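User: My advisor asked me to double-check a structure prediction for Putative ABC transporter ATP-binding protein YxlF before group meeting. I don't want to rely on an old file, so could you generate it fresh from this sequence?
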Amino acid sequence: MMPRLTLSQVTKRYDGVTALDAVDFTVAPGERVALLGHNGAGKSTLMKIVLGLIPATSGQIEVLGAAPGSQAAREGTAYLPENVAFHPALTGLEQIRLYLRLRGCDPAQAMGLLERVGLGEAARRRIGTYSKGMRQRVGLAQALIGQPRLLILDEPTSGLDPVSRREFYAILDGLAAEGAAILLSSHALTEVEARTDRIVILSKGRLMANDTLHALRRQAALPIRLQISARPGAADQVAAQLSGGRRNGVMVDLTCAHDEKLTRLGHIAALKGLIEDVEIIPPSLEDLYSHFSRRDDQ
Ligand SMILES: Nc1ncnc2c1ncn2[C@@H]1O[C@H](COP(=O)(O)OP(=O)(O)OP(=O)(O)O)[C@@H](O)[C@H]1O
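Assistant: Sure, here is a fresh prediction for Putative ABC transporter ATP-binding protein YxlF from the sequence you gave:
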């Protein structure tokens, strides 16, 4: 399938600063891609280039097979900025109707869009009375006008509570299932870990990683933690036999390389009379993120 978004060797220089340095990646239909990076890594610059708001210094960008900022690209692309501001005196329904009219679409679609983002019941209340999570959903309803095939979301869940975040991602899952390509930036690694298909890490404008979480784990080859619960009174013996560290009354911690995992599990299984349970804890996205974003400095 042709990617919805393709960046090839995209470089952006502001005077003296290289904000993007030969960045390559694609986003396919139905794919949810997380764009991660420290402050100043180049995420906003990348989004602005994709939206056609600023030009790249060099490289090629294709948005829905067209040039960024062209009519074809703009018609099929939705953008949700980090802080969406709406008119507080308007109701959600009025606000979305207004956007529909501005886009030359039928304002009667407004209720359907609001229901889609879970604002059906609040549609006739003033936006001034909405919570931050609800305002973010108005933003998403606005972004869904015209059935976009590519969504660019700038930290869409910052400031939302855990329940609102989950609900927001559930809406994105539905859109991706219908074939929308989604690129979202975030600083919240735990939620991205569970809710996206691929991870792109930028550091000082350079692409440090671009793969699934699974593949990044293999590439990084960070140690895996094995957490063993010993039978009552057996923790010292288990720790001694496995050369592991005792944590409290019953827990024994081990770390091992990825390719030692099965051997280590074999040793643990051989102590079966002494052991209640074993938990395998792979490196978290946070561990991977610091691994990949630091690679540059070495
Ligand atoms: N208009 C500009 N003129 C000069 N330098 C700029 C301009 N815009 C951004 N930069 C620089 O380019 C680099 C990348 O900035 P960018 O805003 O893209 O980062 P970011 O990853 O979006 O950061 P954040 O997480 O803080 O939003 C930074 O060093 C920034 O100072």
